[in-house]
Amino acid sequence: MKKFLSIFFLIAVSSNVFPMELEQSFDLRTGTEINTTLGVRFLNEARYELLANKRWQFSSGFLIAPGWSLLSAYHLDAGYNPLFRPELSAHIKFLNVVYHDISIGTAENSIIPYLDWKGKNFEADIGFSARFTNFDRNSLNYIFIYPNDLIQFHLYYRFAAYYNWNNPNIRLGLELKNSDWNYAGNSFEISWHIDAVYQLSSEWALKLNFGVTPSGFGGISVMYNRFVILAGAQYRI
Amino acid sequence: MKLKTFVLLPLLIVFSTLQCSIDWLQFFYTPYEVNTRFKESLSLTPPGASSISNQNNFSFIQVTDIHLAEGVNPYLSSLSRNLISTDAFIIPTGDLTDYGKRSDFIAYRDIMNSIGLPYFSVIGNHDLWFKGWDQYKDILGPGVYSTHAGNVRIIVLDSANDTLGADQYKWLEKELSMKIEPYCIVASHYNLFSPVIGETSQSTNMEEVYGMMRMFEKYKVNYVLMGHSHIYDYRKINGVSYLVGPAMKKYSANEQKYFIRITVSNGQMTHEKLPLL
């Protein structure tokens, strides 16, 4: 939380010192995750996104999720656009996910280089995540610790197709992904999501997302055991 | 042209995989999911506990991903040639058959019985295909059980849906907390970690995996034996050995296959990956 606020403060100050054309957005969302094996938890997420001089991208956010066990996460993401084409940008993301419960007490720190394509009705992120699992309970919250107890490499992806439903202010989308703002799953941890956005004004939008993550997809023995529903709002400056 | 490609390409993929007898239904739904199988398993008779003549010096075997099809796997049939006098039992860690066919489960049971050692079978995702659970439980018994061989506690898990489910997850901790034997082996099908870059086959719910790892650490499990990825992988994390056995599936003639021998000697448990003769 402190890191998130200090980064935001730094950007606000530097934009006054060095003149920049800034496009900013704030997202807040809340919801529930149901894991039929482990339990229920409540998701609370905030995210700040910045585009400076239509070229440099930065985003940061955090997640706090109490419930069957406390989960927290935060990420830092830097990107450059355009890369060859105006729709394409290159990113590097750092992610820290902590499972605080005493029965788990584990953190994942990931370095994720990826490419992002933002078209009119289609978006895609594709890259890979190098995930370093930290079992040392004393250093779980530090994003730049990369222990070698367990290092794994996975695909990182998100594909989304959108459709404006008889109304330019309503956008419906279908997402297939193994990643989110504060999450980077295993390669075959495929989630299906329905994403709806209602644009209230040029500044404000309401968002709703429903997702399901089956287990056993890679082994063709699918069982639906994880569900998520998120509702939130976005404010653009 | 584009439309034709879009229509024909998926159809081609569908028909080519139908040739491989993939259970397409299970891309969307598994008829008997893990919570149902767990409940049924508790009412079935597990393989009997076995004794070991020399409890300070013995060994046992892990084989995995046999994928018996049409009743034949020459590598499994040749396993008896590779056994030594200290070998006390065998743990096949899942995917015993390719398509969950009754005839293949019977062939597997007959081959294992002919070897003459006690064996503790683990259910795999392929064993569920085409409603394979009906055949599995009838021929091999429960998918989840806890038993012992001499002074080794053996806990067999059903991870064939890539999750233990709530009931089995709680049961696992209870069984671990009650064990009195000095050695403990947990056998499960899905590998917990990705063994190499680009390998996509592993458990997908890492929170559940970490919870299990902390249980194994707390209750001093010696080895967690797994299969599924077909690639040998070994790592020791916080005192627990995690071992993914090499597959025994027959891909082509004259392949070199391997099996795992775990040896208990002077209070230590170690393993070797050995070529199948």
Strand order of the largest sheet of chain B: 3-4-5-6-8-7
Which residues of chain A form runs of ≥5 with pLDDT under 50? none
Give the end-to-end Cα distance of chain A, rounded to a whole number of Å: 22 Å
- Helix count of chain A equals 1
Secondary-structure element series of chain B: HHEHEHHHEEHEHEEEEE
Instruction: Provide the CATH architecture of chain A.
Output: Beta Barrel
The proportion of residues in beta strands of chain A is over 45%
Q: What do you see in this structure?
A:
The complex is a heterodimer of chains A (237) and B (277). Chain A contains one helix and 14 strands. By secondary structure, chain A is mainly β. Chain A has a single domain (2-236), classed as Beta Barrel (Porin), CATH 2.40.160.40. In chain A, strand 10 and strand 11 form a beta hairpin. Chain A is globular, with a radius of gyration of 18 Å. Chain B is α/β, with parallel strands linked by helices and 277 residues long. Chain B has a single domain (27-275), classed as Metallo-dependent phosphatases (Purple Acid Phosphatase, chain A, domain 2, 4-Layer Sandwich). Chain B is built from eight helices and ten strands. In chain B, the strands form two sheets. Chain B has a six-stranded mixed sheet, with helices on one face. In chain B, strand 7 and strand 8 form a beta hairpin. In chain B, helix 2 (34-42) packs across helix 7 and helix 4 packs parallel to helix 6 (132-139). The model of chain B has no long low-confidence stretch (mean pLDDT 90). The interface between A and B is large, with 37 and 45 residues.
